Structure formats: C-alpha cells, structure tokens
Amino acid sequence: MYDYLIVGAGFAGAVMAERITTLLGKSVNIIEKRSHIGGNCFDTIDTNGIRIHQYGPHLFHTDNRAVIDYLSNFTDWESYEHEVLASIEGREVPIPFNLNSIDMLFPEERAKKLEAKLIERYGYGDKVPILELQKTDDTDLKELSDYIYKNVFLNYTIKQWGMRPEEIDLDVTARVPVHISRDNRYFQDRYQQLPNEGYTALFERLLAHPLIALSLDTPFQSEIKIEGDQIYYRGEPFGGKLLFTGMIDELFDECFGSLDYRSLRLDFEYISKEWYQAKSVINYPNEYDFTRITEFKHIHPVTTENTTILKEYPQPYIRGENLPYYPLFRLKDQEKYRRYAMRAQEIENLILIGRLAEYRYYDMDDIVSRALELFEEIF
Fold it and tell me: Is 70 exceeded by the pLDDT of residue 99?
C-alpha cells in the first residue's frame, strides 16, 4: 500500500510526486490513463527527426523566478521567443494585434492617426482586451476595434470555443489583447525558454525517485473508488492521501451531471520541403476549419530536408472519443463545478489540483507554482 496516490502524470501530479518523495520520503503511485508521462506536454522525435509536441505547441514563459529555479533542477534550457502571425485579408500580420499589424493593414496616413490615438488613450506598452477597446467613444478607434473584432477575433473565437466572444468568461477573452507596442513577441514574460532536451526528458527526471511508481495505461476508475467520505484503492480502504488532477465530474461518477469541455483534433502532416511557413505558428481566423498551423522546426531547430506541421481543429468534447483540453467557462458549468468542489471537501484525504480537477485554465508556469505552493500549504 502506497502512502500517496496521484491521478495524472502532467505537471501538477509530477511536481507533487517529486516533492512528496524527495522531501517527505513517502511512497507515491501515479496512475495515468495514457501510455506516457507528461500529460499534454508530452513531446517526441518524429520520423522527420523533428521534435514535435504531440498535443499542440507548449511554449514555456514566466515571470516567476521560483518556478524557473525549481525546474532547473531537472533540465537545462534553450532560449525561445514565440512569434505568431495571422492570415488577415491575404496578409500575414503579427498577433496579438499591435502597431506593426496596423501598419501592414491600413494606408500609411490612416495607420499613423490610429496609432497616435491608441498611444494617447492607453499609453505605449499597454495591453487592451478587444472587448474593452470596443467600448471606446472615439470614432476612429471604434472603427479600428470593429475591424480587429471582425477580422481577428470573432471567427477565431467561434471556431475555438463554439461560442461568440460575448458568451465567454472575460478572463478568457482578455488573454489575447491588442498590444499598444511594436513588440511582435507573443509573450512578454522575463523568462521565455524551452527544456533543451524536451519536456518528456524533464518529466523523466521529475519522476526518477525510486519511491515513485508509475501505473501507465491505467484509468483511475480501475483502481480507485469513492463511497461516502471513504476512498478505496484496489477494493481496500485507503488511509493515505489522494491527489487528483483528472476530471472532477468523472471522479464522482457525474453525480451532478457532466461538465463541458472543448477538445481538439490534431492532424500532423509531413511536408517534403525544408520549410513550410515563416513563423512557428500562423493563425487562420477566417479561412478553413482549423484555427492554426504549427511548424515545429521553428521551435526546435534542426537541419532536415523535410518538415512537420500540425493543423488544429477545435471540436466539442465527447467522452470516450477525444480529450478534454479546455474547460468551458460558462456560468452553468461554474455552478455545477461548485457542487463538485463542495462534495470533494467532504473527503478529508482528497486533494484537487490542476486544470481538470479545479475546472480552470492554467499556463504551465502557473500549475508548477500552484503545485509548489500547495505542497507547502499541506505539508
């Protein structure tokens, strides 16, 4: 019998397992339904000799020095500053939309006027959510905001979430603001870098402690059951702690109904040419059914004659058929989640952590920070 059970081998579960074994000397069994560690960060070398991110591009960025210091125990880093283009009216312009984007899409005099007004109203270097920019009373800025909303934001949001922007929590829509600057980088964090041997190698080192056991290809339902306030492991009452990073509604057999998620269909293509596109990611807000194309050679440079791209097709999450990538941030789902969270509080030795268990979005640095802080709080 293990001291701790952890469901999920992504960042939340791996960091907690490493801390428990290294600092407490306690045994852990990580139960993971997939055949690999690393969760959605899992990467591998494909047949073209290119490192690909199996579940879509994961770009590490943070201002949190403590997170960098911690993860640096398990990896060296290589610098990578992410830039994204969007196909707008036949041109590929920087995204998030910025002053350079305006220059590329508007006549020179018009662009200068719009840029001057943005800087005067908001200040150079500010970031303005598009729905906030839409509230402007300035005629020129209102015309600009309508253009950005229609050509950059609206259709991409509908494809990505299956809803209009106004139906989505403001925390989501604020994640891609208009930048009042000429900085084409997608992120402005102090630290922007990638594990130099990939995420999978980082996870292998995180989970290398001999007190960590891995049960891969193992749905947690085959090992764990909850009845009342008691956790059962392989049919026996479990006296240790269960750290759960999976879907909270599945943990409780959907007793309050299923929570909604958004999924993706990921189509990799192998291209017989050295390069496919100008940047690692190009968004397609208005054309095609996919939202973006990623070319991984830009992220992990390697000399090859061929290249590998990934097209992402957002789709509804269907249990048993695809993966839950993103919680849907709607009021009805938040209310339902609160009922599950209250149910979880009835179980003394149950700890929830992670995107699916807490029904909220986490960047990679945020979930590492959350795991480190939670460990300190609990232990």
Answer: yes
